[in-house]
Amino acid sequence: MWRLLDELEKCPTLVPSLSVSEVKHQRAQLQADNDILRRIRTHRNKRIAHVDERHVWPDSHVWQDSIVTVGEAKKPLEDLKSVFNKISAAHDGHTWSLETIGMKDTSQLLEELLAKP
Length: 117
Fold this sequence. Notes:
By secondary structure, this protein is an all-alpha fold. Helix content is 65%, strand content 0%.
């Protein structure tokens, strides 16, 4: 995404109906999520990527200091969707969907597939 925004700022004629100030606004919208993304990376790097049942976590404060709620985790995805749609709509009038899939969706799909002969 950052490269796309860089290119749009360098060459505004790629999407003429999107001004440089609008591109900067889109960049700022994504940069506002940096703290949430940093906390998600900390959790991934310190906890998830190093899961070992025998390991005792002396750094439990790392997770407590980096708690991320479900709503916070969804915000960067929603912002990314918004930025992509803004650029896409300015380019050719089309918008795209970016949705997360929940457990219920997967279960329902499997049930439907199993029900078919």
